[in-house]
Amino acid sequence: GERERDLRRPFIHKFQTENHSYVYDVNTDRIIQVTPVVYDIIDDFGVISIQEMFEKHGSQYTVEEISEGFQTIQAANSDEGLFSNNHPSEILYPLDEQSLRNLYDEDVRSLCLGVTEQCNLRCTYCSFSGTYEFQRAHNSTFMEFDVAQRAIDFLKQHSILCDYVSISFYGGEPLLNATLIKECVEYANGIFGRKPIKYNMTTNATLINDEICRMWIDNDFHLLVSLDGPKEMHDRYRVNGADRGSFDKIALNLKRLHDMSPDYYRTNIRFSVVLSPPYDFENLSVKNVMELSYFFQEFQVDIWHDFGYTNASDLVSLRHLSGQNYPITVKVELPFLSNAQLTTYSVLSENDALICSRPSTHKLIETVHNQLRKSAMQGRTSPQIRTIPHGVKPEQIDSDKKQDARYLLSLPEEITIILCSVDFNLNSGTDIFPLIRAFQTIAKNKEDILLIVSGSDEYGFLDGARKFLESSVLGRQVLFLPNVGESARLLLLAASDIFISPSDTVYTDNGLQVLEAMARGIPVIATDDDESGYIDHGRTGFKVKKGCLPLSYQALRNCFAFTPHRVQALIVSQGIVINVQQIIEFLVLLIEDVSLRQTIGAAAMQYVCEHHNPTKIVEKYKHLWSNLRQESSLIQLQTSVTENQTSDDGWLPLLLSSISQTVHENTPLYITPEGQALLETQDVVIYEEMEEVIFPPIILTILDLARSVTCLSEIIQSLIQLSNPEETKNLVPNIAYHIMWCIKQGLMIPHKSSPIVEN
Ligand code: SF4
Fold this sequence. Notes:
By secondary structure, the protein is α/β, with parallel strands linked by helices. 48% of the residues lie in helices and 13% in strands.
């Protein structure tokens, strides 16, 4: 009947926004934007025949449209496992009562205190505004200290197994109950002794005073500040009871906090930005990205630095290796488009060159960049965008080395070791499961194999897995070694026979781990969906297709008997993962055939030597650097002035000629209102690449001169006259730089016909 019919439908939920239609696919945990026809017919997929669909939806769509929609659904279903009708048949609780008891007795890590249900603001969209069914409204409930004290005592008693605890303050606006918060901090610091406490607070930042700032700084509070963007965006919704915007107050308060401790400000604050109409993904992609980006730059916030992978250590070492100081290199990896756009814009606006390690990132950056340029960035010079792959040094691992490594790690000699590296977090933590599942199948019939799982485990994710595996037959054949240091990591590589990267992309950890294994002649199994070219299937390694791990709660319970909230997290993050069947197939091949391992390992090493040779990579950097130098008269100037510093009177003509490449010496220069304002505040502090750079007073002198003198050569002459002869020598190389800086920052503008404006 009806229930049976429901079970045949795809396990999905649908929703629409003003412009688009979406399907949430429960089994893969993905949200997919679909066409209207797909949206309308998808519920019938697998329930009625296509002929019946023609009849049912014929009044709305043509036969062709329906067929096309149907094919799209079918393809997504067979290729990616989307829109399947796997419905859970039952939900079982994964832990028995005793384990639950133990868990809550000893392993409670965090406490969140809702210190008040009142707020001083009345943001229109607030979930506590009283307009949402099932949500409480603002009210005058305030937590008393004895309640908080008992909660903190509880945390103390039940966190014996935790190496740190976290205490968060939430509201309403928690600072309405600031006295209580201070008491809590004092009390907790007293009773927890040396166990670290991580404090967090979500706040609207309107009620800050010096004392509160001090408490935050002294106790290393991490803050989540609600700020929706520039005044116009923010004040539209975030208002007080009298409908007055809260932006000005927050801006002032943040400045106060910043002044007190710029370091704290830079590291401990995150902003929670709510995008509400009229801003949405569509218009955010161009104009508002820029607004937001500028805005957050003004607030000295890096809005981009923690998206994706930021480990640039190989770039640093490459630069070091080459003996050159490259001016600006930025590596970006862009996992999500919306973030990508913010990221890209912010990066593009600040740097002369962008370097990415993957071709698809390159394409993405270019697309977004062109889009931005078209819309609003005219006048800006384009940074160079290059794909420069990673450089990895090959290292022969002969059998002696392998023996030594195994000896040092107390691993037996006569077994096949499979090394897997996964970073454990809620996104990629689940990558391990297809591998474990595959390994369970293989290990049933093979005693002499060992799977070593390493990688970083910030969240204590592995504890549960370890407990489970140790208690099962498999326990003896799986070794969990999370968070090993660099030397141990290299030892592990040396000790291994096969490397597997079970993530859904070869670029986990920027693909470096895969490359490193290949560089040591270890055959690799990985997903390669991103044209990296690392793996030539069957020759330099094995490529595994993405697949879908069908979700069954029973299977999760059996395989991954983690603590309840972790299972929940797994279910939430379970997405498309790599294909279990193929992992089994390739692992068995490599385990059984030692000479195949050797052949593939050798070819892999050969590939790395040819394509990821550090010396060649350094050449690419050098090339880029020299291009940059040619293009930038500014950099040219600095270099040539340095080279010529010995000659006593060579500098003035040189300076003039270099700078004139960009602005002619007789080009009129005008101070802008921004320049004027800067001159009045005398506050020349900017942030460059997260370093605080205080510009010397010369900037102010230049701006001051620009008020009365009218062209470049006059400014230079006057500056030289102003300084004493000793100073002049040191000053000169910087004059041009600072003049250019003023122009670039919009503090001075040259006359329209000068090259910089035409550019
Ligand atoms: S600051 Fe937060 S709690 Fe207060 S009204 Fe605004 S959204 Fe609601």
